[in-house]
Amino acid sequence: AKGEVASSGTQVGYARYGQGDLPGALSAYRTVTRLVPENVRAQRWSGRILLEANNPRAALPFWRRVAALRPDDPGAAYFTTLSEAGVRHGLAAARAFYGGVADYEAGRRRAARAKFTRATDLSPT
Hints:
The protein starts with a helix and ends with a helix. The mean pLDDT is 96. By secondary structure, it is mainly α. It contains seven helices and no strands. The protein has helices at residues 2-18, 22-35, 40-52, 56-69, 74-89, 91-105, 109-122. 82% of the residues lie in helices and 0% in strands. The longest helix is centred in the N-terminal third of the chain and has 17 residues, at 2-18.
């Protein structure tokens, strides 16, 4: 029964997401997370949609749950960290900062500097 709930709920969520109905998609995925809390797909999509809606505080518990269920998942670790930074400094500043880190690590120093400057402008702390 849990498998059927998770399967149908995530299908509805994905279909609604594809139609641009983010509130409907989130509702479907959150229903799955309540009924089948170990369903990683629903936890991940709930967190993703909430980040897209610029709500890192609401996204954070979902990303923490994904990280707990999949401790070796680098995406879960990244989005948990991004959500935490988004709560502290604002999501735009956090995205700029981590984008700067990625550019720096890839050797794109000029692009990294621009993103770090943007992050600092958005959140001086």
